[in-house]
């Protein structure tokens, strides 16, 4: 049974709403997170770092370059992720037109498919991950985020299973083949990213090759509707401050501003503005665990645009969170001195953390 003090802490955090702090929910964290922040932007309290620029890294150096270029990319990417937990990738080879078409199709899903057709696909836990449709203001139990979402894991795509049935996951035909092409374009980047990270840490760059081939992921369609006056006045954020649970997240740059990254060195927020067609990469809790805190799981959130004229425009994103399968064991990488964390199953690690968003029953009976 949960400690009554922990239950009370969670309840107080929920009741605090827009005034909640991340440390109200720290019992769920499975890696060290000393930073303190409000889950939602507070104009009068938050400070912004206007000088820090997220490093731009050309991944074509690693994929197509010579030994010297590969080494340069490894250093650039590794130092960016170790320093702030975020990097901007260029040279990835994915056509910008594919990303533009993805935004159009996501708008169709949330604007043209009636709610009654989406609700039968409402989210359910499968393995570690809640998969399916998240109605507006239901992304977490902590805070009414101003976003609708739809999470598709590997099994929602016709990638490996000859018994795949599109209707089990997708409300209408045609979307799966298109978004499969987006997922496959990102799958080609998983090995180079992981190999670069391992090289930077002095590990065998191919240590995770087998685990990364055909691994699970969470591909999320995010639709942040135009902000009405009531929601603007409420102080609610578009997505609360959080750290991703995964190894790393691949996020194509978005057209409408709002992504903010916490610089833990000065506890100021960075407004991240990535070039069109680029990819934003950030590390998550899995990565912080296996790297013994070398690569942080960095706090970020989605706030309303600083430019209020953009309130009338929806914000559309489609991040791909890269995991390992539930039966894998997360353990500190070989060669990293003085391991801080004991080995743990991915499913236990994942569900313990995400119980803060879905309630304590989410991790019930997970071994």
Report, as a whole number of angstroms, the end-to-end distance.
15 Å
By CATH, the superfamily comes out as B-lactam Antibiotic, Isopenicillin N Synthase, Chain
What is the overall shape?
globular
- Report the CATH C-level class: Mainly Beta
Q: Indicate the low-confidence ranges by residue numbers.
A: 1-15
Spatial extent as radius of gyration: 20 Å
CATH architecture: Sandwich
Mean pLDDT: 92
Write structural notes for this entry.
- Helix content is 30%, strand content 18%.
- It is α+β, with helices and mostly antiparallel strands and 367 residues long.
- It has one domain (4-363): Sandwich (Jelly Rolls).
- It has helices at 4-16, 60-64, 67-83, 96-112, 115-118, 175-200, 209-212, 229-234, 285-290, 346-358, and strands at 56-58, 86-90, 124-126, 129-134, 148-153, 217-224, 239-242, 248-252, 259-263, 268-271, 279-283, 300-302, 315-317, 320-322, 329-330, 344-345.
- A hairpin with a 4-residue loop joins strand 9 and strand 10.
- The strands form 3 sheets. Strands 1, 2, 3, 4, 5, 6, 8, 11, 13 and 14 form a 10-stranded mixed sheet that branches. The chain has a 4-stranded antiparallel sheet with strand order 7-12-9-10, with no helix packed on it.
- It has 10 helices and 16 strands.
- The longest helix has 26 residues, at 175-200.
């Amino acid at each position: 049974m949960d400690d009554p003090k922990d239950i009370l802490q969670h309840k107080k955090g929920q009741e605090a709403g827009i005034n909640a702090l991340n440390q109200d929910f720290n019992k769920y964290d499975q890696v060290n997170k000393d930073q303190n922040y409000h889950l939602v932007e507070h104009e009068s309290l938050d400070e912004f770092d206007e000088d820090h620029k997220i490093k731009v890294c050309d991944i074509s150096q690693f994929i197509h370059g010579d030994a010297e270029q590969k080494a340069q990319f490894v250093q650039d990417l590794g130092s960016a992720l170790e320093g702030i937990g975020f990097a901007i990738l260029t040279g990835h080879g994915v056509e910008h037109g594919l990303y533009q078409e993805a935004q159009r199709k996501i708008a169709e899903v949330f604007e043209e498919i009636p709610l009654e057709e989406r609700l039968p696909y409402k989210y359910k836990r499968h393995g570690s991950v809640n998969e399916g449709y998240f109605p507006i203001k239901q992304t977490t139990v902590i805070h009414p985020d101003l976003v609708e979402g739809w999470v598709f894991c590997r099994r929602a795509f016709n990638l490996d299973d000859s018994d795949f049935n599109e209707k089990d996951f997708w409300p209408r035909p045609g979307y799966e083949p298109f978004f499969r092409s987006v997922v496959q374009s990102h799958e080609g980047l998983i090995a180079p990213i992981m190999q670069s990270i391992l090289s930077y840490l002095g590990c065998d760059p191919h240590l995770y090759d087998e685990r990364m081939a055909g691994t699970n992921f969470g591909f999320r369609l995010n639709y942040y509707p135009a902000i009405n006056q009531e929601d603007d006045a409420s102080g609610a954020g578009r997505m609360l401050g959080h750290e991703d649970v995964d190894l790393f997240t691949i996020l194509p740059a978005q057209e409408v501003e709002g992504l903010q990254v916490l610089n833990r060195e000065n506890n100021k927020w960075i407004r991240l503005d990535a070039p069109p067609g680029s990819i934003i990469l950030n590390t998550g809790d899995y990565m912080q665990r296996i790297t013994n805190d070398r690569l942080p799981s960095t706090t970020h959130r989605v706030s309303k645009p600083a430019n209020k004229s953009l309130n009338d425009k929806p914000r559309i994103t489609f991040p791909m969170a890269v995991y390992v399968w539930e039966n894998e064991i997360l353990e500190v990488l070989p060669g990293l001195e003085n391991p801080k964390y004991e080995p743990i199953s991915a499913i236990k690690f994942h569900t313990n953390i995400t119980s803060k968003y879905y309630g304590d029953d989410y991790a019930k009976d997970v071994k």
